[in-house]
Each structure stands twice: as structure tokens, then as C-alpha cells.
Amino acid sequence: MAPIRFGVIFIKFVKVLKNTHMRNTLPLLALLALSACMHTPDLEFREISPYTKLCPDAQLETLYRSKPEAAKGTHVEWQFAIRPSADLSDVRIEVKGLKGIEAELGLVGYVGISTPTADIGDDVIVSPTGLYPDPIYTEIPTKMAAESLYCLWLSAYIPQNAKAGDYRGSVVLTGRQNGKKFKISHFLDLEVYDVSMPEPTFSSVNWAFDSPSLLNLWNGGKSVERYSEDYWLYVRQMAQALKGAYQSTIQIPTLDLIEQGPDGFDFGNFDKWVSILRDFGGLRQLQGDELGRRAAPVWDCPDFALYVPSDSAKLLLGIDDPRTVDFYTRFLPAYTQHIKDLGLYDNFVQRLCDEPTDANAEGYRKVAEFVKEIAPDLKIIEALQTTRLDGVVDVQVPQLDVWHQNYHNFAAMDGPVWFYTCCMPRGEYPNRFIEQPLLKTRALYWLAFEYGADGYLHWGFNYWNDAPYSRTDVPGAGIYLPGGDSWLVYPGNRSFVKSLRYNAVRDGIEDYTLLEMLEARDSARAHQISRMVVKDWLNCGKDEAAFTSARHLLLEALGE
């Protein structure tokens, strides 16, 4: 590209002379001379839909210009693609304007998927390079290589005290190319409605983990001693990341934290976890980690067993084993009483054994009855794939397809009904796989609203493998875990790195909250709008134009 034409400079000069009546023109002439020397870079710098996942070889052909609309207390996003034809150096990117709006810039990184996921819908994203966008790094590189694609992500939070109305700002990119300075800008437009979103009340949980291997990854490959200062820093950062995605139900590693001694049980580390969760204000409901599992590693194993701590490890024992009876007869009363003493028992739920099916529902029932006999008022929550545990499980959490296929049965049952996704379901169902469009992940919460779910559960918040950036899919245990199934955040340098899907989860819960606000005033209107996004269980979040229209109508209705 050539420098700015002198004809343009001359026109500017004439306007300056006219406006200043020929007075004090020397400083202005100097500025014009400087702008004449400013290089126009040879690069692509354009806005991209924030619902688009740009793989490294993507072609930037479609022009896109947005004006996001938002309520106070919510977030909006912009995405920009940068692809220079020659190397860039001294790169700097700033957000200007948008007064009173909290803006955060990041750079989208790429991760690998070793094996493409089978059967995840006709809108699956296929990357010829095998690399997919997901993590969002907070540091912007000062150098950019020729012909490489860089995706800039801008997330903005609208404070509750923001003024309603139109906002304008810009993203300014400066640097050097071929030794010459350049500066280019892209305008940002935003409309804020006079609508304030309250704190979301939708029950949502992603299980967070603290195993030694995960701590090592977070700590740059160096081991972290359990309950050391670094360990508690990890827990605090994890709590903050959970809070940022509105995870109101937090799972706590029960049997790992509570130690037993000759005089009873030591709840010190358990209490410190709870204290940290409370400090971040995201703890509305506490969930105890599972107490058992299938008695044998076979999916249709008819029996379940419970963990019993020993000197060296946790033993998996049947409920008729004397050691099981002895431990739980002592543990459950002390455990439940301690949670009552903390003032959390009314908002406490306990998992027993994950994912019972029709084949082992009776085996699960026996374990639940064993536990309830000792702790009758303990509320049980369980991810399940059966309708045969009504009256046993207090909070039933069917897998999305099981909920769909048995929707009326679950609706007729007593107690809350959540739903969950994991490595399943696939097909056209919405999930949060990396190979699926972002809008499909966000639409999970529109589906939750439309069909009346009381909550949503996913098992993997940070269950990283040993190379979480190069391989995001996890084979093992006879079940293939697609890319994106096992974690929503990545390990940073003693930090947690958010992802595009993390933002989609956060924004989806905000959408749910706004829909819930409208439902309180006009239920028919709220569901009319939600059906623009959720046409049915298998046609959900597939139309970006329909989604944008639905959000516009939602904000308009709330602002009336």
C-alpha cells in the first residue's frame, strides 16, 4: 500500500487554513507533515462475528459490522482478524472511548484435536490444519508474522451504573511494517439498554479438580504440595474462575479434604475450601463429590460400591462390607452436622455414584437407601440416565438426550430436574465441544429456559491431560472424550486461561437471566422469543441472525 496521497494532505491543509484564518498554522503544518509520513500498512484488519470460530487458514472474505446491544450487568464481545502481508513489529493494540465500559483485550490461541469427533452435527467445524481457536490469552504479541492469522478478542462488561444509550469507541492498532510506522483504527459501536440484570440464580455447576497432575500443570511443571500456600492460591484462582462463569453450585472434594483420626474427623481443609468459595461470593449451593462408583469398571455393572478411606488409599467396598458400615455410620452423622454448623445444609446436595442407568438403577437404589438410613435428610443429586430413581434422588440430572426422550416423565416427578451434557449426547444436540459453533454452546441455556430446567451440570471444568494445548481430546476408560469436553479453562503460568467457550457459558447464563426477567412479566412473550433460538431439541442455536433478532426483541421487551 502506498503512503497517504498528497492530494488528501493538501485538502486537509486548505481546510486548516480556512478554519484558522491563516493564523498559527506552523504547528498544524508539522502535524500534517507527520501524517504524510505515516505508513499505510499492507494487512487485513477487519471485524468478524464473535460467534465465528476462525481456524488458522480461514479466508477473510465477508464484511461484518456490528453494534452489540446489552443490558447493564452483562457482557458483550467483538472479534477482529489481523493478517499482515509482511511482518509487523512494535505492535500495540488499545481500546479507546467506550467511557464507563470495562473492556478487556485478548488474543485467541489455537489448540489441537488429535482425532475428529464423530457425529456431532451437520454444522461441525472442520479445520484442515487440525488447529481450532479456543484459549484467550491476555498478552498481545509485539510481533506478528507475515501471512499468519491473529484473532483479537474484546470482551466488555457493562457496569450497573452505566448510562443507557449509544457508546462509540475504537480499537487502535499501531506498529511498524518494513521499518515504517503505521496506525489504523476500527470503530466500536454499542447500545446499552435501560435494563439491569440481577445476579443470576440459575443453578449451574462444572466440576473443578485439584489432583497433583493438574496442580503441576498450573505451576509450570513443578509439583505443588497439598495444602501449601501455592495449593491455596490454586484453589482461590479456581474459585474466581468458577464465579466468573456464574457457577453457583460448587463441587467440593469431600473425602479428599476430610481426614479421620482417633478422636473423630478433621474438617479444617474442608472448611478452608468453603471459606474461599464464600469469599468470592459465588457459593449459593455446595455439592459433595461422589462417595462411590460402579463396583466393577463395566458400564452395565448391576452393583455400586462406596469409597472407604484407609491408610494408603480409598477402598471401594460394597455396602454389606463391615468396613463400609463402620465408616459411614461414623462419617455421615459428623459430616452432615458439620455442614449444618456452617449454615450451608439447606443449600447442600450430595452425589453418591455417577450416571446410573436402567441396567443398574436397583443397585443404585440400594446404596441410596443405605445412605438415607444413616442420614435421612441428606439431599442427593445425581447425573443419571434412567427414569427409575424418582423418590430416591432428590435432584435428578438426566443427560440431555435422556431428558428429551423422557421429558413428560421427568416433568411429572417431584423435585428439581436439571440436565447435563458430557461426551454425550452428540448428533444435532447442543453441547460445548470445540468443533461445534460457539452459538450452539451459548444456546444450551436458551434450551434450559425453554424446557424449564432447574439447572445444568457439566463434569469437566479443568480436567486437563498432560498436553492440554496440543491435544484437547481425551481417550480412555473405554469412552472417547471429544475436544472441549474435559475442560473449559486452560492452565496458565500459575493462572487459569479462559476460553471462547467459557465466555459462551457466561453469556448464555446472562441470556437465561434476562429471559427469566421477562417471563416474570410476560411468560408467553418470553417463550415466543426463546423459540426463535430453540426451534426444537435438535434445532437449537443454529441461526445467528435469528439469535441476534431474539436478543434485540428481548432487550426491547425488557426496556418497555
Main sheet overview: 5 strands, antiparallel
What is the first-to-last residue Cα distance? 49 Å
CATH C-level of the largest domain = Alpha Beta
Strand content is 25-35%
Total helical elements:
15
In helices, the fraction of residues equals: 25-40%
Radius of gyration: 27 Å
Number of strands: 26
Q: What is the CATH topology assignment of the largest domain? A: TIM Barrel
Q: Tell me the structural class.
A: alpha/beta
Task: Please tell me about this protein's structure.
There is one protein chain. The protein is an alpha/beta fold and 560 residues long. It folds into three domains: 1-37; 42-196, Immunoglobulins (Immunoglobulin-like, Sandwich); 203-289 and 347-559, TIM Barrel (Alpha-Beta Barrel), CATH 3.20.20. Helix content is 31%, strand content 26%. The chain has a five-stranded antiparallel β-sheet with strand order 1-3-7-5-6, covered by helices on one side. Residues 1-36 have low confidence and may be disordered.
